């Protein structure tokens, strides 16, 4: 048995039900309201990144469609500072912007390494999406209207179905690998592959609940992007805090040493 698997098995999984999702969201909102400045700054950073994508892609929506969906893959890394705030609040410790900013000091190689892996996965999807749309769309996809007409509502072929299937094929293992691994890496002294294995164990133990949670994250994120990404100002930190509470109710990592 590999050392990573042995370490992962030291982490006990908690039973979970779909009704607990409402509690994650409620406590996430409480954390956001308690430390709004840190949350708004994180949300503004994500919105600014999205606006930069819009500016760089210009009228090349064939590229933008993949970029925004790939953006969702790496979003958990951007939430690291907000996880730290939720962690501090749960322990009755001072929580604020300073706590969040300390997470960005480059002294956590495990978190940095995992962030790079997620960025690589996101980049792979962007390139795959762009190649698929440009190769098989019946015309240039330069705007959201083109994407709707030539990809989503195309009468011939199954480009949109293929695009969605390939996206899900990539997103599913990335989600399964990251849903609890990033907060776990922040919270406990655990190896990267042990954290990833634990995340997979969580998903396999409760696929229905974790699938519902994933669908809710994607749906709310898409809705937040509609008003010129302004919804991300509030929704991004809210979901980040909620994800921390999901982690604490999904696993019991008390057998491992705390990470300072």
UniProtKB/TrEMBL annotation:
UniProt-listed InterPro entries: DUF2189
Pfam families noted in UniProt: DUF2189
Protein name in UniProt: DUF2189 domain-containing protein
Transmembrane recorded as keyword: yes
Coiled-coil region list: none
Top-rank lineage group of the source organism: Bacteria
Positions of transmembrane segments: 32-55, 61-85, 110-137, 162-186, 198-216, 222-240
Alphabetical keyword list: Membrane, Transmembrane, Transmembrane helix
Originating organism: Inhella proteolytica
Keyword Protein transport: no
């Amino acid at each position: 048995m590999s050392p990573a698997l042995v370490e992962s098995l030291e982490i006990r999984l908690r039973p979970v039900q779909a009704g607990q999702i409402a509690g994650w969201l409620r406590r996430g909102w409480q954390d956001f309201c308690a430390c709004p400045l840190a949350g708004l700054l994180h949300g503004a950073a994500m919105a600014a990144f999205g606006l930069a994508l819009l500016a760089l892609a210009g009228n090349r929506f064939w590229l933008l469609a993949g970029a925004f969906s790939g953006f969702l893959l790496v979003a958990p890394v951007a939430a690291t500072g907000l996880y730290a705030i939720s962690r501090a609040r749960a322990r009755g410790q001072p929580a604020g912007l300073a706590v969040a900013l300390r997470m960005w000091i480059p002294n956590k190689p495990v978190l940095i390494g995992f962030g790079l892996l997620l960025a690589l996965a996101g980049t792979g999807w962007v390139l795959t999406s762009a190649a698929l749309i440009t190769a098989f769309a019946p015309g240039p996809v330069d705007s959201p209207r083109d994407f709707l007409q030539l990809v989503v509502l195309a009468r011939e072929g199954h480009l949109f179905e293929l695009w969605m299937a390939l996206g899900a094929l990539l997103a599913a293992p990335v989600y399964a690998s990251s849903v609890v691994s990033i907060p776990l890496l922040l919270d406990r002294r655990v190896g990267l592959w042990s954290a990833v294995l634990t995340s997979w164990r969580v998903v396999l133990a409760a696929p229905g609940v974790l699938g519902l949670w994933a669908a809710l994250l994607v749906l709310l994120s898409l809705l937040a992007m509609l008003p010129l990404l302004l919804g991300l100002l509030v929704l991004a930190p809210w979901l980040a805090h909620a994800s921390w509470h999901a982690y604490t109710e999904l696993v019991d990592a008390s057998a491992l040493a705390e990470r300072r």
